[in-house]
Specification:
Blueprint: H1 2-13, H2 19-183
């Protein structure tokens, strides 16, 4: 310590700044440093007090954004579900209409087939009936023709018999005439 003090004394003697000035300078620097530390302490204290409020504010902003996102997500989800329901309903209605059309076509075809079968049955009955009537008419005509043939045959036989009788009579008359002439 003595060597330090003697060095300071020598410096002062040799034209160096006196210790009081230096001390004053150090005290001024220390005072500035203390003020800076105090200011820093105040700033840290303000930041420490303001930090929870900033966190709270930031948390509130994030919470609000999350709530808005949740609401938008829920809204989008509800809209998607509604659209799905509409699409599902539309598909069901289309399926129902297609089923109705298919059923109507099936019924229409069945009716048409039934009508065609009925028409064929009717045509078959008519043809059978016509054939039966024609058969009966032809049978009747054949019977008439057979009767006419029998009558004609009988008439021919009777005519032939008459002709034969006439020839027999004529021949008998000629023979008698020849007998008369030959006896005469």
């Amino acid at each position: 310590w003595q060597s330090q003090t003697s060095g300071q004394y020598q410096r002062r003697v040799h034209g160096e700044t006196p210790i009081d000035e230096k001390l004053q300078q150090i005290l001024t620097d220390l005072n500035s440093l203390t003020n800076a530390v105090d200011n820093l302490d105040k700033k840290i204290e303000e930041d420490r007090k303001g930090f929870p409020a900033a966190i709270e504010k930031h948390s509130a902003t994030l919470t609000k954004k999350i709530e808005e996102f949740k609401a938008k997500f829920e809204s989008d989800n509800i809209q998607r579900l509604e659209k799905e329901q509409i699409i599902e309903q539309t598909i069901k209605e289309q399926e129902y209409r297609v089923q109705q059309q298919l059923e109507a076509e099936r019924v229409g075809r069945a009716q048409k087939i039934s009508q065609l079968v009925d028409a064929l049955d009717t045509e078959e009955r008519c043809r059978k009936k016509s054939a039966a009537v024609l058969h009966e008419q032809l049978k009747g005509e054949i019977k008439k023709l057979n009767l006419a043939l029998e009558k004609a045959e009988k008439e021919r036989e009777e005519s032939t018999e008459e002709i034969v009788k006439t020839f027999v009579h004529y021949t008998a008359a000629l023979q008698e005439g020849v007998k008369i002439i030959s006896h005469a």
